[in-house]
Amino acid sequence: MDYINLVILGCAVVTFIPRLIPALFVDKLNFPPKAEKFLNLIPYTALAALICPGVLTVDNQLWYIGLIGAVVAAGLAWKKVPLGAIVILTVVILIAVYSIVPFF
Amino acid sequence: MSRKARFVDGCRKGIPITFGYVPMGIGYAAIAIKAGFTPLQTISMSFLVYAGAGQIIAASMVLSGAAAMAIILTNFVVNLRYFVMSICVLNQIDDSNTPLNILAAHVTVDESFAMFSLSEDSSIWTYLGISITSWLSWCLGAAIGVFLLDLLPVIVTNSFNISLYALFVAILIPAIKENKQIAILVLITAILNVVLGQFLGNWSLIVSTLLGATVGMYIVDDEYILGGDA
């Protein structure tokens, strides 16, 4: 099979299986409160691990680009700017930052 | 609320996610096309795999000529977190059946999971609304990217790479602001992931997510974390 097709199908299968297994069994499970608490904490820890240190690799050459973006997004979220507007404003500000980087 | 009303409500809640997914999908398409994917392969991967970071890593590895098995194994490790997220989401849902669960499982990603988990909703229809809107916007981003890539300057496609992180940060900040224990937990998990990354490489994402939640069992009050949903 073509190399890229093999990569796409292989990735599709190994990504779907972990998602699928809970769908087949979760109805039969009844979690005790301690497990509920553990599961409810996952969104916070997953987001923390996804952001740090990945955000510093947004630009492979300039690590601070991602940091600036994260600080801008955090500041806007702190001021309760709507989610969609935060994304657009962060991208726009990064384009502005990229435009002035060559001058330093 | 009827099923349809819940689904439409979910779609509406998913709109902010599309603001991040369309530009990020364009960014992914830029890498995929550079790696030698055809337009059809680029869009199919978004539809079939539907994993932001996983797809970008896979396309980058194709670009550097890695073996197919190495790419597939890396994707498995990087996307193993969806197992945990899928359990969380389905555990919160109270009106589903197996076929709907299977559809929901395929469209479970970081943002739809985080948005739904941190809300009071418990309907599969709301979740499908959020998730399918996000999924289609990710595919739409890839499609736009394939056709418009040559027209966009590099600084614009580079800037698009921040959009997923902007979503992550924006979803997390309200909880940090509201609860100091969550803020400390987020900080601890971030440090854990940086340290473990030195030893575990790609495994550190899932390991620090689970270790962080274990730490949270001790430092976050039950009332806060179990308050919303029964």
- Quantity of strands of chain B, as a count: 0
Structural class of chain A: mainly alpha
Strand fraction band of chain B? under 5%
- What is the terminal-to-terminal distance of chain A? 49 Å
Number of strands of chain A: 0
Low-confidence stretches of chain A: none
What does this structure look like?
The complex is a heterodimer of chains A (104) and B (230). By secondary structure, chain A is an all-alpha fold. Helices cover 73% and strands 0% of the residues of chain A. In chain A, helix 3 (63-78) runs antiparallel to helix 4 (83-100). The longest helix of chain B is centred in the first third of the chain and has 32 residues, at 3-34. Chain B starts with a helix and ends with a helix.
Features:
heterodimer, A: 104 residues, mainly alpha, 4 helices, 0% strand, flat, B: 230 residues, 80% helix
What is this structure, in a nutshell?
The complex is a heterodimer of chains A (104) and B (230). By secondary structure, chain A is mostly helical. Helix content of chain A is 73%, strand content 0%.
SSE diagram, text form:
The complex is a heterodimer of chains A (104) and B (230).
Chain A: H1 3-25, H2 33-51, H3 63-78, H4 83-100
Chain B: H1 3-34, H2 39-48, H3 52-63, H4 68-79, H5 81-92, H6 98-106, H7 110-117, H8 124-148, H9 154-160, H10 163-178, H11 180-200, H12 204-219, H13 222-226
Helix pairs in contact in B: 1-2, 1-3, 1-8, 1-10, 2-8, 3-4, 5-7, 6-8, 10-11, 11-12
